[in-house]
Amino acid sequence: QVQLVESGGGLVQAGGSLTLSCTPSGRASSYYGVGWIRQAPGKEREFVACLRMLASDTYAADYADSLKDRFTISIDARNNTLKLKMNSLKPEDTAVYYCAIWSRRIASSTYDYRGQGTQVTVSS
After folding, report:
1. Which residue would you say has higher pLDDT here, 80 or 15?
2. How far apart are CA 30 and CA 103, in angstroms?
3. 40 within 8 A of 122, measured Cβ to Cβ
């Protein structure tokens, strides 16, 4: 069983930056990708970004088209932490951001594990 704990959310003004972190406990028996999804109030869950495993310690990054110029996903291997750096934040980025692990097709609802989420609020 894997538990994911997100941190780093908060209130930021439009144009500002935040970096989210996700730390897992336990270990998935196998996984295909790790990444982030988000859900804004009254909206459906949305894929944000992921790292697909190509080989041991080799990943390919995928982003939602609308976010790839502002968000960067990475792994801090030394601290076993998944990161999401968010720049030039907009009020429409306001959402609860969830860390997730996938063992197969990556989409907003096909994850095998998901954290409790961290709130990101962007004020205009």
Report:
1. 15
2. 7
3. no
